[in-house]
Amino acid sequence: MSLPLFPIWIVDLLGSSLMILFSFLCVRLAKKLKDQDQSNVVWTYLLWLCYALAGFAISRSVGHIAKRVLLTSGHDDVWDFLRPYSGAINTLMFVVVASITLFFERTWKVYQQISKDQKALQEAHEELIYLNRNLENLVTARTQELAFSERKYRRIFEVSRDGIMLVDGNAAIINLNPAGLSLLGLSGLTTNGKRIRFPNFFDNLDNWTAIQDALSLQGFVSDTEVLLKTDNGTRFPVLLSGTAEKGENGKIDSVQFLIKDISQRKAMEKQLLQADKLASIGQLAAGIAHEINNPLSMVLGYTQLLLRDEKEATQQYADLRIIEKHTRTCKTIVEDLLSFARSTQTRQEVGHVHTALDEVLSVVQHHFELDGIKIEKDFDSKIPKMILDEEKIKQVFMNLIMNAKQAIGKKGSILLKTHYDQALSQVIIQVADTGTGIPPEHLSRIFDPFFTTKPTGEGTGLGLSVSYGIVKDHDGEILVRSEPDQGSVFTVILPANSARGTEIINGRRNSFDYR
Amino acid sequence: MKKSYVTIVSCCFILLMFAMVQPAGATQVHAEPEGLWAHQIAHLFFIISMGILIYWLREWKLVEEKGWRLVQYSALFFILWNIDAIIVHHLDQLGDTFRTINAGTWYASISMNKDSSGLAFLYYIVKLDHLLSVPAIFFLYIGLRQLLKQAQVMKTSDGKS
Fold it and tell me: pLDDT tens, A314-327?
């Protein structure tokens, strides 16, 4: 069996020609690609690959065509001479093409890196151009934003009702807002050219040490209650929160403190506690007073019956008189207790506090002047008439004025001041004296029944308790401010609105607190 | 000027070397089988390099683009062609499996021995190696054309933006 070689030769000649043709077309396309982007290393690579393939195609195809032509035309000797050169060059071209092909991996990585760098450069370039074009606008906008932000935070700093303080690593005050300045009673942040230190305001330096330890350990303190003092010695409780900023070495660079004055809250808590306590005592007192009142009435009644049948000169008569006198004293105490407990009937009449005050003054003024005590009046003419039990209110004023006199002793003055707060519809009556004042430890007990600092027999300790009960019965409040050797100020606050009167008349009790 | 002078001198030197080829006793003799072996190893190197090219094209997912996918096909056909060529060169040197009748004429044919008709038939088929090499270069051509088209599109879009 034999197979004709003719088809092989045809394919060989045609294929060789096509190889040359397409290899040159590839070179042309690769050149066009390179022209698109001269810096693209991949296109350069492809161009070199195409050059090598073109060389390969020429070396191989020309050899094949030459072989076919020379053998067909009978020039075998010429082909025998050319054959080794053709074969060797062809082999070399394989190696060249294969070698160039192997560079693809490196070329592509270089291309990727260049593309990445180029992209970054392009972005930086575009950003620069944008910044160049809009620098002025950007600076203006940023400045406005900054100014707005600064204003905003400055405003928070300035108008905050709480103290905001910045201290450095040595606790020297760097910045303090107006509320903080006012709280600490400062006008500036330096004395004698030196920065004021925050620990100077701590009543107890152990508190500051504890705060410092917490800041070092955890970087912040929150809502720590401490007692601060001003330069003039006024002490006040505050809630202190602080956050430390530490430097690279771990040491505290600065601390921001928020200082919240809680003295009002504390006073309010104290007041509420006092009111609670007095209410409890009042309930107890009322219960006891009711129980004692009836037996006392019986004792008094029978004593008076026995007295009627007894002759005056007898010892028995004298004894019965003593029983009657002490029973009456007991009854007065019981009535006072009932007043304190607000269990007595309160009359509702139209009256004026000035009238009540003037009537009390007319009784005591002459006597006081003889003792060298001056009474000053500062009455607010705008105070309206009110619904009140004038007799009981007079009893309150009498108690307060008598207490003031006893606190002054000899020589001093008492100021009676009234004021009408139209916005709150309140009448405020103050009795201020220049006496010895009340020791702080007694302040929380002065309204307690039977609490007295007077010697035994001079007072029952019910005066202020009764006054408290009467004022509360008028839906008012009674407050005291006193410091040792500075005198005391008792303030009675009564509601002036007519609605209250209506409510009382209708027999309903209004427990609404005005403070 | 200096560069062209160096080139001319180098070319002359190479031509002189080819013209004055003589047996050199001091060097190893490279007899006939070495040429075939060198050629076959060159084909193998070609296959490996094309295989590596395909690997990287796939590794970097370049084949997802039509242009590089066609380049991948081109590399694949070049590998097939190289295998084909290695087989042809191997069969060429066997000698006694077939005879060429009327060699050098348009009527030449291969006469097969009965024992080796399969090999002769394989030789006949693999001799048509251009059926693999032409598609290989053609795929490279259309691949490059596609890449050029993409590059032009990208350049246009870059110019617009």
Answer: 888 999 999 999 88
Chain A contact present for B83, CB below 8 A: no
Please name which of A19, A55, A12 lies closest in space to residue B134, comparing C-alpha atoms: A19
Q: Tell me the two tokens of residue A84.
A: 């080794």
Kindly list the residues from chain A whose CB atom is less than 8 angstroms away from the CB atom of residue B106. Answer: 6, 9, 72
Q: How many CB atoms lie within 10 A of CB A132?
A: 9
Instruction: Note whether B112 contacts A2, CB cutoff 8 Å.
Output: yes
| In the block, residue with structure tokens 């009795």 | A431
Beta carbons within 8 Å of A378's beta carbon, 6+ residues apart: A415, A416, A417, A418
What are phi and psi for residue A376, nearest 5 degrees? -110, 145
Q: Which among A171, A180, A176 has a CA at the least distance from the CA of A215?
A: A171
Distance CA B62, CA A215 (A): 59
Q: What is the pLDDT of residue A98?
A: 94
Number of neighbouring beta carbons within 10 Å of residue B58: 14
Give the three-class secondary structure for B148: helix
| Nearest chain B residue (CA) to A76 | B104
Structure tokens at A69: 């032509």
Residue B18 CB partners (closer than 8 Å, separation 6+): none
- Distances, alpha carbon A282 to alpha carbons A279, A514, B97, in Å: 5, 20, 135
Nearest CA in chain A to B43: A94
Lowest mean pLDDT among A38-47, A62-71, B142-151: A62-71
Q: Which amino acid, residue A182?
A: S
Does A16 contact chain B (CB < 8 Å)? yes
Give A104's contacts in chain B (Cβ within 8 Å).
Answer: 52-53, 56
Nearest to B81 by CA among A86, A24, A56: A56
The DSSP string of A7-54 is HHHHHHHHHHHHHHHHHHHHHHHHHHHHHH-TT-HHHHHHHHHHHHHH
The rounded percent of chain A whose pLDDT value lies above 70 is 94
Neighbour count for residue A170 (Cβ, 10 Å): 10
Is the alpha carbon torsion for B10, B14, B16, B20 positive or negative? positive
Given this model, what pLDDT does residue B95 score?
Answer: 67
The Cα–Cα gap between A97 and B51 comes to 13
* A-chain residues near B49 (CB < 8 A): 97-99, 101-102
The three-state secondary structure class of A306 is: helix
φ and ψ at residue A228, rounded to 5 degrees? -105, 160
Answer whether residue A414 shows pLDDT above 50: yes
What is this model's ipTM?
0.78
